[in-house]
Each structure stands twice: as structure tokens, then as C-alpha cells.
Amino acid sequence: MAAMQVAESLPGGQARDVPREPPPEQGSGFRCLSARLCALRPDDSSSARTEIHLLFDQLISENYGEVAPDVSALLVQACRLVPLNQNHLVSKVSQLIHHLLNRLQVIVDEQNLDFLLAYTISAIQQCSSWTHMEILQALAALVYCNGSKCQKYLPDLLGKNGILMKLSDSAQPDPEARRAAVHCMANLCLSVPGQPYLEEPYPNICFQAFLTTLQSPKSSDMDDITFCMLLQNALKGIQSLLNGGKMKLTQTEELGALLAVLKKSMFHGLPGLNIELPTVLYPTPLPQYDGRPPVKPQQSESNTSRPTKKSKVKSRKIHQEEEEEESSGEREAVPITGSGKENLCEGSTPCSSSLGVRSLPVEGSSMAGRDRVSTPFRSASWKKVSSSESDYSDAEGGMQSKMRSYQAKVRQGALACFLSTIKSIEKKVLYGYWSAFVPDTPELGSPQSVSLMTLTLKDPSPKTRACALQVLSAILEGSKQFLSVAEDTSDHRRAFTPFSVMIASSIRELHRCLLLALVAESSSQTLTQIIKCLANLVSNSPYNRLKLSLLTKVWNQIKPYIRHKDVNVRVSSLTLLGAIVSTHAPLPEVQLLLQQPCSSGLSNSNSATPHLSAPDWWKKAPSGPFLEEASVSSPKGSSEPCWLIRLCISTVVLPKEESCSSSDAGCATGSIYEPSPMRLEALQVLAHLAKGYFSMAQVYLMELGEVICKCMGEADPSIQLHGAKLLEELGTGLIQQYKPDSTIAPDQRVPVTVVVMFWTMMLNGPLPRALQNSEHPTLQASTCDALSSILPEAFSSLPSDRQILCITMLLGLNDSKNRLVKAATSRALGVYVLFPCLRQDVIFVADTANAILMSLQDKSLNVRAKAAWSLGNLTDTLIVNMETPDPSFQEEFSGLLLLKMLRSAIEASRDKDKVKSNAVRALGNLLHFLQPSHIEKPRFAEIIEESIQALISTVLNEAAMKVRWNACYAVGNVFKNPALPLGTAPWTSQAYNALTSVVTSCKNFKVRIRSATALSIPSKREQYGSAEQYVQIWNALVTALQKSEDTTDFLEFKYCASLRTQICQALIHLLSLASASDLPCIRETLESNGDMVQSFILQFLKSGAEGDDTGAPHSLHERDQMVRTALEHISSIQALAGDSAKRAIMDFLEDTLTIYFDSSGSQVALLGLTDR
């Protein structure tokens, strides 16, 4: 026999969540008893049976101090001693298996497991029915997390006539045996990560059995507690199947049936509530447009018990100890304002369990790990409320409390299972059932439909309330797109409710109910979940489409909780405030809230939060030059300080006001500051404010600078990291103010002198040290990102030694072995190379180019993508320098380096799309930059040809549209270089063929627009090549104009007008360059498609470019001047004798201008334009 292995954890490393009694000092009794049992031989005598009985009793009652190494062998020996015709001994040995496996947490090896499974299955088949309960308990302990090792026994257990299928059937006369059989099935379905799952079709067989169990009503011979345990086991079985990933709920009927039983179980035993549901919930069709009448939710729900009198919420003391707070969380009822809403009947309920949601007992408080199905439904660590589940004061009250405890566990199990269901289906499928689980504002006089908020507001167990909130949070997470259709309307005269209005109503009701729950809640753990749920709701709601006041109510309600005694509540409160200032920023409503006086809304206190002794507690500022510097950067008209910024600064830098409470997790011994999670959250809120409401944050620029210096000077890398993130957001905000398209008035911007002071303080502080902290590469990378957010105008005014410091550190870090650091450095260099004060420095540009080329060879895709982006920026700099009057840069820039850059860009253009899109941009710029002196050299000829072939290949390849757009743009850049032999080189026709192919057939209209733009760039007729090439381009553009509305993608229609505008501009440009040999083919096209072309040219003349920055002329005069120029050019061509093409084209243009001027009411004559 294989030796037993005793383990503290499961094979996959999953710790068993089982309470264990402390072992006594002596353990020799177990060894002695084991030795005696192993010495016995099978004997059917009465004395032998008596001895075995006694040995089994002693082994079961033994306290195990030290565990023998052969426990499973001992169990095998025990089974061999017990023949299956001895019912009493079989029952006893089953108890021994169950007891030892649970108590000692033994992992049974496969050989012994095989024997023990065969024995227990045979025992169920052969022994009397009264033994089945004990045998099933033993079987449940054996199969726990061993489902994959039981494959050969699955037909006996789960087959058509399998013993578990028979015993779990609703017709089973013994309710305890039925419950135990379902428990065995649930343990079979429990999988361990890294091990195989149950083979098909057994997962589905189990699922259907669990579903049938949940759908079946309680039989008359089953007591309430057994029924609760049966439901728990079925729920945990389904949850195990879902968590194992084998169950894919793709069928609407299957998912609807599961959700129906989950909803029913969610409210199991909830006082004052009894609902009836259909066996299947069907999804509401989600309309793709606004105005579809909604399906009325919960038509089959009926509230059979609705007390008429509203129960009162007991007043709770504010300053309670943590234990008292949890027990007081067991509330009798929560009143809901409004007519027709259910309220719970009075009577408080003691807390149901001392165990967490992660592992709920099945067999009772004495059951150990094998009687549990461990689930990943994690929540806060719930504190114990009573010393034991069986610790009840008297018989009657005790039974009632025990009953409510088991009912609460059913509700918690249903919610845990629902959470696993949410994770295993697509969100778009889940939102079809939105109205079944999320409340909607009830119509006047109608009762509120039951939902997750019913549990949050009414369930007496704080643990169940927290579970319901976790499920609601999971539903809300990632719901932004679904909720984005919501829109408030004041039009109540419609015959139906549009879908958008229904969603808006649901969002309002969620706000109302969660704020009610916030006020009523006394359990700190549940309070934390409420606030987190609110944060999820705020992050996903489209407040820009909703009526005002929703955020104001949340804002005012949450303010007092930022001083709650529990650190988790304080942290989640800051998270919620961060969500408010980051959602759809900047919102006018939030702007007003941030400008409220500091004391506004802080007098509100409730039973869960201590009253704030001083309304201006956050105004305490650290000593230092904060306030003196802040006044320098204050915009005009800002007098009232932002209380939220003051709060966050105080949280980060001020010592805490009182000693750290026992609930302050993360509060290091001897730390003088707030716990780390509080400080990190405060820094995140400051970063959100800097990003969305910079006008508020800029008042505190220098003060925030000192906060950042303090954070980056601390030992905690996470504090340093968040300080660097805040610095990056502030730097980005300053850059946005100085962008050419900025709407900020110059006198409202932070003066450049103050920005220089700010960055000087950063560079003289701990920032350089953080950049060189190779032990924390994430911090280095974030500091690089922050350093790249320096305002260019301020960088040029920094002391020269600080400028050199920045450049030297970045160039040095580019050699880092860490990919995060290297990627951030490459990006930062790509930003610096665009700075006006650096871009004409040939040495810096060359050093940067060499650094970027080295990064382009890195193994990391992210590093190569950042390097390619920077190479694109560097080549943009080359073009800018080429356009300056001073030619010194072009002359001094190394031709050898240009060759290296071209080779690297060609190589990168064959990389992944993330690299390729910028590589082709760089190629186009480099080919545009090449001077005649470069092109004349033989070593450049081959690389130019290869570069252009790379661009043509990218234009034609079915790559990402961004890549093809950049490739078309790059080809247009190549056409701008007059030194290249465009028109005579062999690659000319290939380039034009690629562009004409795209302009006529590409699915993406923005790519078509860019290719049409490139076709209109050559400025001389000879650059278009032969007459055949010219005509091919002309015909392709006419065809593209015909097909400018041919698309199956609705999103592309908005670019139709821009595409037509660009094609018309290209056609007119071609006409203005046409030669005599081109005219016959042009006339031929106009004869067949002249009306169509003329109508689009007239549209072009009247409206111009729309929706895309293509460079098309915008003014009316510029547009008609283009046609006049083309007409003048055609009239000046010396046509061949007898050729009527010239006259036909001139007539076409003159007619077009005449129609245009007539329609616009212009009196301008066309006389003199032509000589008829």
C-alpha cells in the first residue's frame, strides 16, 4: 500500500478553509489504536465484531496529537475488516472515513482512493437504507476535490441509474439521504486548479440535477433546516461547475432557468417577503435605437406578504466597538420611502454565521472541510458575531435563530452562485436580464419590484447585504456602454416609455436606494461595499445625459464618511470621490461642487459616522513655502479653496490626528501618517482632479509640487509611484493649457515662470534619485513618463544644468535591461526631440536617433512600438528643420545615420501593426527629407527603392486601417520630394496603382480619403508618368466618386462627404495639369459620367470639406478658383488639329461654373476666361 501523505493544503496549492482544533500534547493513542487495527484479520465472529466496534469508537473519539503516516492505509484496512453484510459495522466504518478525512485533512493517494470508492459504492448498493446517510457522508469526503480521479466510477454514481441520481431524486423518501447525495455531487464537481475537470456529459448531468433540486418545492416530510442545506449544496454544486469553466451557459432556456432559481433563492426566507417566479426568466430585447417600448419586468412576481405599518429603524449608538457594530448590523428592517413598498416585520435576528462567504457549512457547525465546497466568492473578512452556530439561548428562540441562520446561508449561496454566473457569461447577454435584478422607479401606486436592492435594504444579515452589493457591483462593472443610452426626458405624454428613459429611471433608482442603504447601514464591512458599489455606479453612469442633482446627492451624503472610524470606509469614500471627479470630466455640476465652501455638507452625520468636531479640519497645511508659491499660480477670480484638494493634501502629508484604530489595516506600527491605502487613494484623487479639473488644481501647483517631492522622497515605492503619476497629470495639464487650440485665456494659464519654478523644484528634489532607482523599475518608468510631460516652453527656460540632467538621464536609461523602463525612455526621447529648443541641435537629434534605433531591435513588442513612435516624431523634426531657411541642419546631419534609419524603418515596417504604423510614417518622412546630394550617391539608390517597395506593400496589405492610412500618408510625403525621380522611376506606376486600388476598393473611407489626397500631391504633369498612367488615375478617381456611398458599414457614411470632396479636389487638380494627349480619354469619361461628376463638383463648390482634415480648401473663393485655374489651363493647351476633346472639357467646366454662379446668385461674368 502506498504511504499516506498528510498535507495542510490541497494538491493545487489551495488552502483548505477549515477550522482546526489545537492538538493535544500526546498523540501516542492514535498510533497504538492504528497498530491494533492493522493487526486484526477478517473474522466474522461476534467477539471480533465487538472488538472492531470498540476500536472504531476509540479512533473516532481520539484527539489526534501527531498523525501516523498511513491514515489512508488504515482506512483501507478498516474496510477490509468489515463485510458488507454487517450494516452496523459498515455504518461505523463510514463514520470513521468521514471523521478522519475531515479532521486530519488527508490527501488520499489514487490506489487507496480507488479501493475506498469501490467499497463505499458497493456499500450503498448492498446495505440497508438506514446506513445510506453515513455512507454518503464518507463518499462526500472521499470525492472532495477528487472528481477527476473518480472517472471510472462516474457511470455508477451519475449514470442513468447511478446511485447519486436515484438518491438525489425528489421522489427519494429519505430527505437526509437526498441532501447527502446532492452534497456528494457538489463535492464531485469541485475542481482544483491544474487538475482535469469532470468529463462530458457529467458536468451537464450534475447541472440539470442541481437545477431540478432548486426548482423543486419543499416536500412535506422535509424539515426547514434540511431543505436549506439541500438548497445550499445544489447552489454550491452549480457554482463549482461555473468556476471550473466547463459550463458554458449559451442556451437562453438554460440560463433563464438558472437565473430564475437564483432569484428565487436570493430571497429564500427573507422576512415579510414571498415571491413567485416563472421557471425561466427571458431576456428583454435590447433595442438598437431609442424609442422601443420596454418589456415590463417582473410580471409574475407577487408580494404575498406586505405589512401595512412601516417598521422603525432602531437608533444605533455612534461610538460602538467593532464587535458591537457587526452584531448591530443584524437589523430588523429598513424603511423604504414611497407608497406600496414592502417592509419587513419587526424583530431582530442574530447574525447567522461566524464563517465567511468563501466557505459555508453544509452539514452543520461540526462539519469540517470535506463537508464544504470552497468557492472563490471573496468578500471582506467577516468578524465573528456569535461564538458558535449552535450557541442559542433557549430552545424556542434558538430554533428560530438557527432557522434564520440557515435561510441566510441559502441567500448568500445564491448570491455567490449568481456572481459566478455573471463571470461566466458575456455582459451583453447579462444586460438582457437587467430589469430582473436591478430596480426601476415604480409607477405611482405600484409596488417596487424585488431586486438586489431589496436585499441590500431589507436583509437582516449584514453578510447577505454585502454579498448582494458585490453582485450588483459585478453587474455595474463595465456597464458604461450599456448605460450610455440613458437619457432623461420631461415629456410624459408619450404612449410608451423609450428604452433610454427606462435605463435613466433605473440609474436614478439605484442612486436613491444606495444612498438610503448608506444612511441605514451600521456594519463597517457592508458600508464599505455600499460605497464601492456607488463608485462603480458613478464610474459607468452617463451624467452628461441625465438631469442634474444625482452627483450632488452622492457628494453630500459621502462627505461625512471620509472621517469614519473604519479605515476601509474612509478609503472607499475617497475612491467614490475619485470616481465623481473622473466621470465624464469636466462636468459643470462637479465643478460647482468643488467650489462649495469648505464647511458645506459636513454637518451631516449619522449613526455610522462620528460627528466632525471641526468643519475646517482639512485646512491645516504643512509648514513650508506652500501657500506663498500657490498664490503665484492662482488664476484670476479663484478665491474659495477647493476643500477636496485640501483634504487629500492633508491626508498625504499631515500626521494622523488620533492613534490608529484596531480596524486600520495597513497602519504600520509607529507610523505617524494615515494608513498607506488612505494616502494612495488621496494621491489618486489628486491625479483625477489634475486630469479633469486642472483649473482647480493649478491654484495649488506649487503646494502639490512639494507634496510630490515628499512622496517621492519616502521609502514606500507605492507612495513614490503615485507621486510620479500625479506629477505626470499636472505636467500634462500644463501642456494642454499651452496647446495652440487651447480655449484657456492667456491670463488664466499658469505663467511659464511659475511652471519653470515648479519643474526646477522637481529636478532639484528626489525625482532624479527615483529615475536611478533600478530596484523599482515601475517607479523608474513612471518617473520617465512624468519627465516627458515638461512644458516645452518651460524646458527651454530651465537652467542649462537641469536641461542636461534630463537629457543625460534619459539617454542613459535607454540602455536599461528592464523593458518597462526602456519603453518609457524611448517614448520620453520621442517627446523631447520635438522641443523647439532641442530639435535643431544636430548632436542631440543624432544621439536620440541612435538610442531609438537600438530600442527598435528590442525583443519586447512594447519597447519596439514606443521606439517606432519616437522614430516617427524624430523624422517629423527632420521635416520641420528642412522647412527652415537655415540649411545648416541638413548639411550637418549624417548621411550614414540616415541610411541606418531607413534600414531600421524598413525592417520595422515588417513588424506587428503596433510597430508598423509608425515605421511607415518614418519612412515617408525620411524619403521626403533626402537631399539631392544623398539621392545622387549609389549607396542610397537601392535603399530608396526598397523603402518605397515597403510602403507600397503596406498600402496594399490587409493590415489594420491605421497602418494603411499611415502608409498612404507616407507615400504622399514621398511625392513631395522634388529630388526623387517620380514619373520616370520604375516604382512610379506601382505606387500609383496601389493608391488607385485603395481609393476605389478599401472598406475604410478614411484610408480612401488619404489615398485620394496622396494622388493630388504631385505638382507637375510629368510626375504622373505616361498618358496611360495619367488616364488610369483619372478613371480610378471617377470610379471612386461613383462608389463613394457604397458601404455596408453604417459608421463609414459620416465620411462620405469628405471622401467626395477630396476626390473632386484631386480630379480638378489633374485637370489643371493635363496635357494634350490626356484630353481624349478625359472627354470619353465625361461623356459617360459627366452628369455624375458635375453634380459632385457642384456639391464641392457649395460646401467644401466636411468632417476630415484633408487639406481641401474651405473658402468659396478658393474652391471656385481651383475650377477657374483648371479651365484656364485647358484653354491654354495647344490641341491637335481636329481634336474636339479640348472644347468638350472646356464646355463641361464652363457649364459647371455657370450653374454654380447662377445658383449662388453671383453676377460674375465668365467673359474673358476663355477665347471661344
Brief digest:
With 1172 residues, the protein is mostly helical. The protein contains 51 helices and two strands.
Describe this structure as you would to a colleague.
- There is one protein chain.
- This protein is mostly helical and 1172 residues long.
- It has 51 helices and 2 strands.
- A two-stranded antiparallel ribbon has the order 1-2.
- The longest helix has 30 residues, at 395-424.
- It starts with a strand and ends in a 12-residue tail after the last helix.
- Residues 1-27, 288-329, 331-393, 601-638, 659-663, 665-669, 1104-1112 and 1163-1172 have low confidence and may be disordered.
Gyration radius over CA:
38 Å
Task: Record the strand order, biggest sheet.
Answer: 1-2
Number of beta-strand segments = 2
Main beta-sheet annotation: 2 strands, antiparallel
Chain-averaged pLDDT: 80
Helix content: 55-70%
Shape by Cα distribution = elongated
In whole angstroms, how far apart are the ends?
A: 113 Å
Strand content: under 5%
Determine the structural class based on helices, strands and strand pairing: mainly alpha
